[in-house]
Structures
1.
Amino acid sequence: MKMKHNKKRNTAFIFEVLIRELTKSIVAKDIKKKKIILSLIKENFKSNTSLSRDLELYKSLLETRGMDRHTAEKLIFECRMQRCTIDQKQLFKEQTALIKKINQHVSKEAFAVFIPNYRNVATVYQIFSAGTKTKQRVLLESQILNQMVVVEDKDKPLMQHINNLTLKTFIKGFNEKYNNNLITEQKILLNKYISSFSDNGTEMRLYLSEEIGRLKKAVKNSLRLREIKEDPAMAKKTQEVLKILSTTSKRPVDTNFIQEILKIQVLVKEIEN
């Protein structure tokens, strides 16, 4: 019998709920709600909380790709062992408090949000659950394992650790390719990208939610400009950019992703000027 997935006790799901509600508040220009959600994320997912430790384990299994099978199996095993070291009563307490705050200060309908990778999120929840039968757990681990060892498209490299020298090379290559100096928005994005390796990407995701919301709004507004409306080719290109921004939540934050956002930032800057 398949175990029921309690999404409100799934730390990864709760985090995704907050990220999506944050994005909605940014698009709606709801400054008050945006501040509340940012506060909830920073307070509940700071490094010394059980929620933060739990989320890190979820992300290790959900975001890992291109790993060899043996190493992936070891990672799953280690994540399960580390999950056992988390005080479950404390985790439950933190989840309960956060769920209550989301219902009171964000929206009681927030947990009805659609998440593209919901099936995988639910699968990891069952892998971590002490109530999952051994046979079922093995089958579930096999499902996640197959995704962790999948060979990524060569044009979509995995996010790798980047030091200052690599950053300089990345910026230099971008400048040479697109023949422009980095604007302020691009520098902020690159700095957030680098720092994301020290905080599990939490700060980066918060920044991207706001920045992509800003870019999306600017691109949508540009469709009303006469020079774009009267030029079918420009209108088509603008729609393509809008489509890219609308699918960013489903993509890994790798160098190709960052380069696309960097280019769109320049485009928006030109539109605004």
2.
Amino acid sequence: MAQPTVTTAAWAVRNRLGDTGRRRVRRIADPILSSVGSINGISEPSRGVALTFDDGPDPTVTPQLLDLLRERGVRGTFFVLADRASRHPDLVRRMVADRHEVALHADRHERLTHVSARELKRRLAAARAGLERLANRPVRFFRPPFGAQSMTTYLVARSCGLDVVVWGPHAEDWVEGSPEAVAARGLERLEGGDVLLLHDGLVAPAGEPMPTFDRVRAFALILDGMAARGLAATTVGALTASGSVRRTAWFRP
């Protein structure tokens, strides 16, 4: 179990660098480590932004979100939890019917960096197979819960035939705030070619309060802001097919 220790130490160093220092390190490290990099966008100038939603499906928020996306003529990628998908198979099938992309967010929402490689491979393979049966289509992409990833978990995911997708900008929609404030956080650094992190469901760490803002209203405001900038929401698959995939060395405990 040495890998989580190495990852934790690297993460502690990363946190001391500050935003500017981290960007400088990434400019050097990402090209060198591209062979083990996780997808976080495309390199070419683009109007496209991959709209991604984690932790669902949620029986309250997800149907409202699907209504919104249908009204706007927008498609996105849903990184679903297999245990929630099995409880709400109708929502997974609706995602597919509405031409969204269904991807895996693990079997349940927990950090995978302390799971043995053998156990993790068993769990990811089973979760992927179950989700593919529900969606009736292949599942290509995987995002680890909490973004927690070690070299071991990355290699296990790849051995399962999954490509790891992380993110760039995010709305911090796990933090309380008005829909306007949440949307502003999501739009602040958003550029074409990015992968935007949002949550239709939300699994908060034990003891942390759940935010109560109108999540779908915040998403609508983000779509408004994107349209005003000439940005178009799309899926991870469509975005990465439109240009050179941008990868980042993403390892955190």
